Amino acid sequence: KHGVDYLKSKQNQDGTWPGDRQYQMGVSPLVTLALLNAGEPLDSPTMRSAMLHIRKLEAYSTYTTSLQVMVLSSAEPKRDQQLIRRNVEWLTKSAHRYRTQYGEAVSWRYTPNSGSYDNSNAQFAVLALREAERAGVILPDAFWNSVANHFRACQAGDGGWAYTPGTRATGSMTTAGI
């Protein structure tokens, strides 16, 4: 309750939370998802304002788009089916495709043309796509096999996963890999 009250007290009047500009508009969907998971009613002023903002977000970064899918799929998936589908299409088209010893693999970057892929963005995309499937947007098995091929290919010799292949495995990225 104290955490929910704190998050609600920090909401801006436009439905966002501080830090959105710095983190590519990801803070507000992340806070909204936390509030949803904590049981905050959708008809509360905080959630109504947050949902208005989140429904206006454009798909441009893996992190924000994934969080938007998770919020929409958790809140009112039937109402937001079109937005969920739009974002699933964006996430699947923006995925980085490459070949591994296991076959085609997919992963994600912060944005489609930025740097190399990483397992943190991949984790958020996978979680979002799983929630989209629960909301009725089904992806082909071949796509999911490509996701699994990515995580197979970049698993470190010690059994863990790193943020990017070739770096030290961490607990958080190993959790994502599993």
Query: How many strand units?
Result: 4
Tally of helical segments: 8
- Structural class comes to mainly alpha
Name the helix and strand elements from N-terminus to C-terminus, one letter apiece: HHHHHEEHHEEH
Average the pLDDT over all residues and give the rounded result. Answer: 94
Numbering strands along the chain, what is their spatial order in the largest sheet?
Answer: 1-2
Distance between the termini: 31 Å
Into which percent range does the helicity of residues fall? Answer: 40-55%
Rg for CA atoms: 17 Å
The largest sheet, given as strand count, sense and whether it forms a barrel, is: 2 strands, antiparallel
- Stretches with pLDDT under 50, minimum 5 residues: none
What shape does the CA trace take? globular
Topology:
Elements: H1 2-9, H2 27-37, H3 45-56, H4 62-75, H5 81-94, E1 96-100, E2 103-107, H6 119-134, H7 141-153, E3 161-162, E4 169-170, H8 171-177
Antiparallel strand pairs: 1-2, 3-4
Helix pairs in contact: 2-3, 2-4, 4-5, 4-6, 5-6
In words, what does this structure look like?
This protein is mainly α and 178 residues long. The protein contains eight helices and four strands; from the N terminus they run αααααββααββα. The strands form two sheets. The protein has a two-stranded antiparallel ribbon. Strands 3-4 form a two-stranded antiparallel sheet. A hairpin with a 6-residue loop joins β3 and β4. α2 (27-37) crosses α3 (45-56) and α2 (27-37) packs parallel to α4. The chain is globular. It starts with a helix and ends with a helix. The model has no long low-confidence stretch (mean pLDDT 94).
